[in-house]
Design brief:
single chain; mainly alpha; about 250 residues; about 70% helix
Length: about 250
């Protein structure tokens, strides 16, 4: 009897094109999920925003920001840098609002200055459509919160080398009550948090990728943080220490 010789078939090897297709699908799915989580965060923030009355900070910051834009007068609310107030007041320029008289603009007495900004803020808000002013003034802060969430997602993803880590971090961020509650108030706290994380993220990328572009973006982020709140000055020694300690060698 003749023995038949059978050829042993080699196991099938996935083609390169299939691997590329799977990777593209996974990347698209990650993008969709991340976008969905950010959308969830924004929706929760806006939903909470609709029922919240004006805070004492917003009574000062929004009118001050509007005055900065329209009159270039930065004497109102000097105890905080102008960036947050300018961001929040930017949509108000499209509402054709009027700035009330400011008879005490040249005062240098701290008590008089505090009374001035409260009087000016009350007159600005409650002599016009306060609900519309508060709504449009809060929307930029939701955008700042989305910037913070995006940085957390990208940093966690790069730090752990897996998209799942980024999505998990973003999921926790999107449901965190403190962040949701602060992401729609016109305050300096969320802005300094977002720009500080933004700064450290790009400094981290520079230390690993050695691209001058990353360092430039990190420096811009540091400037934005300092323009949001004076306490960001403490970020400077941390920034330059890490820049020296983690300077890329390649």
């Amino acid at each position: 009897m003749s023995q038949r010789r059978t050829k042993r078939q080699s196991p099938a090897v996935p083609s390169v094109s299939n691997g590329v297709a799977i990777s593209a699908v996974a990347s698209s799915l990650t993008t969709i999920l991340a976008f969905g989580l950010l959308l969830q965060f924004a929706a929760l923030s806006i939903w909470e925003m609709l029922d919240d009355s004006v805070t004492i900070d917003e009574r000062v910051y929004l009118p001050a920001g509007f005055k900065y834009w329209t009159e270039m007068d930065f004497s109102l609310n000097r105890e905080h840098p102008p960036l947050t107030k300018l961001l929040a007041a930017a949509p108000l320029l499209a509402l054709h609002l009027k700035s009330p008289p400011d008879a005490e603009r040249n005062t240098h007495n701290p008590q008089a200055a505090a009374e001035r900004q409260m009087k000016f803020g009350s007159a600005f808000l409650f002599s016009q459509d306060a609900d519309a002013i508060i709504f449009w003034g809060r929307l930029p802060m939701v955008a700042v919160g989305l910037l913070l969430g995006s940085c957390i997602f990208l940093w966690a993803k790069q730090l752990h080398g897996h998209a799942g880590a980024g999505l998990l971090s973003l999921f926790l961020f999107s449901l965190e009550p403190t962040l949701i509650s602060h992401s729609h108030y016109v305050t300096t706290d969320l802005a300094i948090a977002a720009f500080s994380v933004f700064t450290m993220f790009f400094l981290y990328r520079f230390s690993h990728e050695a691209q001058l572009r990353q360092l430039t973006i990190a420096a811009i982020g540091l400037g934005l943080a300092m323009a949001s709140k004076f306490s960001a000055i403490f970020l400077c020694p941390v920034f330059f220490f890490l820049l020296h300690y983690r300077w890329p060698t390649r």
